[in-house]
Design goal:
The chain has 307 residues and is α+β, with helices and mostly antiparallel strands. Helix content is 33%, strand content 24%.
Amino acid sequence: PGPEFDRIREMIAAAGHSAQHIGDDAAVLDIGSPEKLVVSTDISVENVHFRRDWMTFEEIGYRAVAVALSDIAAMGAMPRGVIVAYGVPTADSSALNDLGRGAGTAALVSGTFIVGGDISSSATVTVTATVLGVAKRPLLRSGARPGDLIYVTGILGGPSMALKALKEGKAPLAAARDRFVRPVPRIREAQWLSQQGATACIDISDGLVGELWHLASASGVELRTGLHNFSHFAGVTIQEALVSGEEYELCVTMPKEVDEALFAARFGIPLSCIGTVAASAEPQVNLGIATASKTLEPFNHFANDHQ
């Protein structure tokens, strides 16, 4: 859903047969071993994904790599290395050390390393991170089946709360700002959920409502949600949390109930069951609130620039 993904579909159509197997959080390649190679790339652009007066260069580098690692997490893969390319104006070339330091921290937090990259002069600061990972059973968006339960990790709404405050020239709540500038890729959490039998997974980069539609479309099912267990920041409405982008939590479908208390004790974040998967002649998302189809637009990286 949304104009950003309309553009992606147009690009895939224009590429013709040269574009293959596109549609998950990362590409999956058969390399002739029991494990599949899982590869994802993400670009972070100044004044689109960040502003310098909101974040330090070290935070910019950390965040750029963390969001790419989040895609690897959503595939149930383990990262094996990160390649980072930086573009900076010539006058800001000294920022490369801080960008690299932040990128390295994000890699280490996720149990991997920076293994290569490139630098170039550019009009604005850009960071492009490519992550290489492996998985014996990659989690795809197309695996949800009728009868599955839908779960969400973490507490949503922090990034949108921080972004709103920053745009208004206010200091955001520390916890909300931390969720915005230092997202934690849910590598370990995804591994554990995969071991429990997860059937499909996606990371929440474009808002939960948008990700639910992606899962429903890829799996050809209806997703029915109930929001009584929905975990979101105090001061953020359910509607705001549903469309809060750049969360980098996980939305996952499971064939049976998961011990939420055990998950919280193990990882220090909540796991919330928000609904069920049902058979449907066409993809559907029922959010259980009257405004869902009219006012809850998915997060759009073209429309929601950080300016």
